[in-house]
From TrEMBL:
SUPFAM superfamilies: UDP-Glycosyltransferase/glycogen phosphorylase
Record's protein name: Glycosyltransferase family 4 protein
Enzyme class label: transferase
Keywords from the named record: Glycosyltransferase, Transferase
E.C. code: 2.4.-.-
Length: 347
């Protein structure tokens, strides 16, 4: 039997999107539409090109699947509605957020917010990766000041159906290595240069200064300019997944100190590799960690150090705590995401 054709629209190819492409290809013939949407000056050209590409294929496909809301979700949603093709938009985080103080979130930009709103209105179903992207708030960034986000916070009149489908992870790739062994007194975090404040890079830098006997790694970026970096903090740059896995396998602890986090993919990867998680009390992070690690309730370096004191005294074990790896396997394995998506998407 020939496979049904599906139009998959994505602005980028992060590991979680690549995983979706792999298992969707088992059931469907994918027509992939993508452009370098980071080139904002070329957005009008890309919109025109995309319009004609989608128009040329819309009658051939069973449905349209879009990753992230943005400029690129506008015409697929509109044409899907006009041609009566189901359109599913997977929401990942920035497409549900507006934090102007940190220059973060697609919904802080009026024109882009409008494109997202219309896309969400025309879509058949929204597929957020966590319930916190529907509607949530916290005061982690500034105590006493609630920051609210989520697509229903920003678009309270939105009537489109939605279903939360968590990200999933390859439990056979992200594995501990007992032969490699953990390096005592090591922390690791993953973030990009643009996310240095958003994901707590400044907190990690301060913590490294206060704990000179411990080694800290930040993957995903080079050492930032204009900041005094202690000698025990190493910036690893962008790593191949196999190299990143090795650093997870060798590290005691993983730090996810985000002010906003759509899901926490690196957190799950590190937990699968045996890292003890230490995360902020925002979005889905506490739910991922559960009782396998520690939660920082507010963005305070002194409180972080206080929370860490008993942990460090126990080195890389937590008395009576369940396995971080087993928690991710139970709730966030790739087969779970695959089965949930296949149960919703047309054959």
């Amino acid at each position: 039997m020939p496979k049904s054709k599906v139009l998959l629209v994505t602005p980028s190819f992060q590991s979680f999107i690549q995983q979706d492409i792999i298992f969707l290809s088992e059931r469907y013939e994918l027509i992939i539409n993508t452009y370098n949407w980071k080139r904002k000056e070329l957005a009008p050209l890309y919109l025109a090109m995309q319009f004609f590409h989608v128009l040329a294929h819309i009658n051939q496909v069973k449905f349209v699947l879009v990753h992230f809301g943005g400029y690129w979700s506008f015409f697929p949603s509109l044409l899907g509605k006009l041609f009566q093709k189901p359109v599913f938009i997977v929401l990942h985080g920035t497409d549900c957020a507006s934090i102007p103080d940190l220059n973060y979130g697609s919904l802080r930009i009026p024109v882009l917010k409008w494109f997202c709103q219309k896309s969400y209105e025309w879509a058949s179903m929204l597929l957020p990766v966590s319930s916190s992207l529907v509607k949530s708030s916290n005061d982690f960034y500034q105590q006493g000041r609630q920051i609210a986000n989520g697509f229903l916070h920003h678009f309270p009149e939105l009537k489109t159906r939605y279903q939360v489908i968590p990200n999933g992870f390859d439990i056979n790739f992200w594995i501990p290595d007992t032969a490699l062994g953990k390096n005592s007194k090591t922390f690791i975090a993953v973030l990009s240069a643009e996310q240095y404040i958003l994901k707590g890079g400044d907190l990690i830098t301060e913590l490294a200064k206060k704990l000179p006997d411990y080694t800290f790694y930040i993957a995903g970026m080079q050492s930032p300019n204009g900041i005094m970096i202690p000698s025990n903090l190493k910036f690893l740059g962008k790593l191949h997944p196999k190299d990143l896995r090795t650093y997870y396998q060798k590290s005691d602890f993983f730090l996810q100190l985000s002010i906003f986090e759509g899901f926490g993919c690196a957190l799950c990867e590190a937990m699968l590799c045996g890292c003890i998680p230490i995360g902020s009390s925002v979005n889905h992070i506490p739910e991922i960690i559960g009782n396998t690690g520690y939660i920082l309730p507010r963005r305070d370096i002194n409180l972080l150090r206080k929370i860490l004191q008993p942990i460090l005294q126990q080195e890389n074990t937590i008395e009576g705590a369940p396995s971080p790896r087993e928690r991710v396997i139970r709730f966030y394995n790739l087969e779970n995401r695959k089965n949930l998506l296949f149960s919703l998407l047309p054959d």
